[in-house]
Design goal:
The structure is a homodimer. With about 350 residues, chain A is an alpha+beta fold. Chain A has one domain: Ribosomal Protein S8, Chain: A, domain 1. In chain A, the strands form three sheets. A seven-stranded mixed sheet of chain A has the order 2-3-4-11-5-6-7. A three-stranded antiparallel sheet of chain A has the order 9-8-10, with no helix packed on it. In chain A, strands 1-12 form a two-stranded antiparallel sheet. In chain A, a hairpin with a 7-residue loop joins strand 6 and strand 7. The first copy, chain A, is globular and about 55 Å long. Chain A starts with 9 loop residues before the first strand and ends in a 6-residue tail after the last helix. Chains A and B meet through strand 3, helix 4, strand 4, strand 6 and strand 7 of A and strand 3, helix 4, strand 4, strand 6 and strand 7 of B.
Chain lengths: ~350, ~350
């Protein structure tokens, strides 16, 4: 997950954030929307999730230039009850819409104990994990975040991509231990990992991706779509497929949005709303048990996992979220390593947008 | 998943159910508890999930004989808010406790839109999918079910089993199409699949299980613990590990129960409460959108998946839940194929319990 490519030029997160804000506002995005979007994009880079941070700027900018987002959109409440809320993002930019929806979901969970929020007619929201970890800023709250996306997952025994990487992210706090933060696609990998393999000209493991006939490939340039988590049927790929479909139901089917097959990305002739959808769950742990007892218990659980004996050839066992926390510590200190090709792309974006490029 | 072992003797579900009820009541279980437990166990056999049905009778009976369950236990509400409820099962038998908890969770979701139920101090509850599919008996409801269990999952890069198979089950209704029903362990496979391979003396795929050093094995008799869904790290096993840990948090950490490392099964010297815990989510779809529109949309989604072109060598693409529905149709009609060794074990159990063995 974390690739400490120390040979890459490093750019400070402040410089990257300001650049993203400047580019986004130059295309007409509101100031707060641009700020929160920069925060979420650069959080991905800081966490070492190189598939989802500023390397995605070209995608966002393409769509901004084509007028693919409604930059005046307001997040609208369509239906609401004590533990459930459905929003219409009205084709607004994904990150600010998703951020506001999760904020409201967390507020409602304070009242109801648990709240599920469904966000329809939205757009690509960046890393799923960002919204789950928003819960960690609120004492005693846990968060879950899911989204659908453009079709990339081929169902088990199929040959056409119909579902999406449909990530599931979850963040649970602890006491003294670092929190548990899961953030993973229900495909074997995110498409960005194939792109990284292409940039680095490295083969990919069998079980990641398939060609246009639906057959497993190891050359990333032959990859056309992704296999579900678990890979082939005999290693239980049908479970990854099932998890992706569960996310699909929670996102598009609750929010009355298009399902992944029909969600459009940047590779289309005519720009139509992508109709991406998200689902969030916020949990007030104190609705279930005493928070101090919870913190002690979570510490014992996470500490035990971190202290368990490693298999031969490995030095330690990590908890999901640990690699990202280590990348964060490194990158806030030393800057974010950005692939030279990405730096070139960003400079081109900055020049075209007429904004300062501080790297 | 489905193994149509037509060579095996077939036993009708009525005969199996009555047998289970008779055995359970002979050990002092209340009549309704025994009936709902038989319903849930035999549902597993009917759905073709041979790892979880009557082959588990020996496990339950061992524990019953040792007084491992509190057969007088009542399901107790510990904490309750609009969208959240925590139960204490007081070491009662798992299936009836879990059934009652999910029933109450569904009722509360009718009011709040969504409800999450946490059940602590329980016992092995059978197939996770049963409780998710309870939602399908209530128009417009969807259900999610999770449980922890005895330690069987080795964390990525670890060598000791600390977490459990921690299944995630989800059931979403449709209109005319058969529903979507996911029911899968977050390990590569359930331990029962290793047991089936042992019974059939067949090798298991790499990526399923590890030996006592934490190294991958293909001989099922060398298997000591399970790998997470995704297998090794390079095929994203850390995601299956993360999903198992998410289930662990939702089960044991919300319900103030033991985590999987400390959950005890039948292989212990001294019987103590297993302290298994479960989590349920019930969703009233009408809290999000119109039910007729939902049904049409879910039909289009599920119908499209079922109609998509298969990869070379396969005849069709299924939706999770389809293999189980086909097994159910076959087995309610023709009886449940039971491995001869299991039949022998069941006969022994019946004789010892002094009940009629109608097969």
């Amino acid at each position: 997950m974390v690739e400490f490519d120390t040979d890459f030029p490093r750019i400070s997160d402040e410089h990257l954030s300001q650049f993203v804000i400047d580019v986004f506002t130059s295309y007409g995005m509101r100031q707060w929307d641009a700020e929160i979007s920069a925060e979420i994009l650069v959080a991905s880079d800081l966490r070492g999730i190189d598939s989802h941070g500023v390397p995605r700027m070209a995608f966002y900018v393409d769509r901004l230039k084509q007028g693919g987002f409604n930059l005046e959109a307001e997040l609208e409440v369509v239906k609401e009850s004590a533990g459930a809320i459905r929003f219409n993002a009205n084709n607004g930019f994904g990150p600010p819409m998703a951020y506001k929806a999760m904020e409201r979901c967390l507020e409602k969970a304070r009242e109801a104990g648990v709240c599920m929020a469904s966000v329809g007619h939205s757009n690509h929201y960046g890393i799923a994990g960002y919204y789950a970890t928003m819960a960690l800023d609120h004492p005693g709250m846990a968060g879950i975040s899911m989204t659908n996306a453009t079709p990339l997952l081929v169902p088990t025994h199929g040959k056409v991509a119909l579902l999406s990487t449909a990530p599931i992210a979850a963040a649970f706090p602890a006491g003294n231990e670092a929190p548990f933060v899961l953030d993973g696609a229900t495909t074997a990998v995110a498409w960005g990992k194939v792109e990284i393999a292409r940039r680095n000209k490295k083969a990919i493991p069998a079980g990641w991706a398939v060609d246009e006939e639906g057959l497993t490939v190891t050359d990333p340039f032959d990859a056309r779509a992704l296999m579900p988590l678990g890979g082939e049927r005999d290693t239980s790929g049908q479970k990854g497929y099932g998890l992706s479909l569960m996310v699909e139901f929670l996102c598009s089917q609750l929010s009355a949005s298009l399902w992944s097959r029909d969600v459009t990305g940047s590779r289309v002739e005519e720009i139509v709303p992508s109709d991406t959808s998200h689902a969030f769950i916020a949990i007030d742990i104190s609705a279930f048990r005493d928070l101090d007892e919870y913190a002690a218990s979570a510490d014992e659980l996470l500490g035990s996992l971190r202290a368990t004996a490693p298999v031969a050839g490995q030095t330690r066992v990590m908890v999901p979220g640990d690699p990202e926390a280590e990348a964060y510590a490194d990158r806030t200190e030393r800057g974010i390593p950005v692939h030279p090709e990405v730096v070139d792309t960003l400079r081109g974006i900055g020049t075209e947008a007429g904004v300062a490029v501080p790297f």
